[in-house]
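Posted in: Protein Modeling Q&A

I'm a second-year student putting together a small comparison for a lab meeting, and my supervisor asked me to include a predicted structure for Lipoyl synthase, mitochondrial. I've never done this before, so apologies if this is the wrong subforum. The sequence is pasted below exactly as I got it from our records. If anyone can share the structure token output, I'd also love a short note on what stands out.
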Amino acid sequence: MQPAVGRHVSQLSKSAARLFGLAERGFASHSAGSLAALQERLAKDEPTLKDFLNAYDISDYSVEVGTKKDFKPKPGWMKRIVPGGDKYTNIKAKLRQLNLNTVCEEAKCPNIGECWSGGETGTATATIMILGDTCTRGCRFCAVKTSKAPPPPDPEEPRKVSEAIVAWGLDYVVLTSVDRDDLADQGSNHFAETVSLLKARKPTMLVEALVPDFRGNSECVERVATSGLDVFAHNIETVEELQSVVRDRRANFKQSLDVLRMAKGFAPAGTMTKTSIMLGCGETPTQILKAMEKVRAAGVDVMTFGQYMRPTKRHMPVSEYVTPEVFDKYRELGEEMGFRYVASGPMVRSSYKAGEYFIKNMIEADREKKKSSVEASA
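Accepted answer (user: helix_wrangler)
Welcome! Here is the predicted structure, written out as tokens:
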């Protein structure tokens, strides 16, 4: 374990107790506007880890990660599902036929089988990765290959992507990309064109764009935020204190927050913003709470939490496996803070089928409510 991560891991027990031990003694009765009272209590209360465990009948905050000398198997809740099924096979074949990339494959997502096959909701989703498969950055958690000078983007890609997605009959699609610091527009025009073509071909389709930070360029953010998308997503990835440990040096917490804040201001009313945090990188619960507060203050509507999984031995090691019960507590806390939706679980990823299905229903309900309001006032 690297020293920068290790320093934070040593704080876990005390911070977990501080954050969660207060819940049994009145946090559940807090309203969404009582964050000041919550912060005050966090500063004063010093419950023990035993209080936390007893209050929620949770065996532990996390499970230790094994080493070469002291091997430990992954906990049962981290087992991957082997992908399969007709929908999965058909989508994979179509992707190869059109030479398209998905972050599902490139990032070795554990939910690829569930999302591509439709899972419990029956709605098949895929996260298409545009602008090629080579990133100009080198975040220490990411499995996508990197280069200072990736191949130029395919000018026909927006058309190919829009045609393929419409042909699949998807109701909700996520577009994402590698970072393209080598391009003058950071790839924002590619995003905007793809979204516009999708909406032109199928206006009822809901489109989420999970974008890079565009190096904080407001013109790039505005271009994508006003392209017709329904959800503008950008991931902060980890807590503020671990940004330099986890992400490329060109990324940082403030820049990411600024992108989310700008997107909320540029996008038409009703457009949702979304971000995600990985757990198990060495963060403390208190740091997570602080990050959540800042994200919510930036106007973000949706937040997801998932367990970091080391893609290869060359990447940043996993600090710990956070238990499903603790993920549930972060979800409850996020809902209490006022996020419209929080997806939180070990296998949750920023592009997450169950979350997308919920967001789809939420957006449609918002539109129906707005339509009824307009008709009533007419």
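A couple of things worth pointing out for your meeting: The longest helix spans residues 353-377. Residues 104 and 298 are 28 Å apart (CA to CA).
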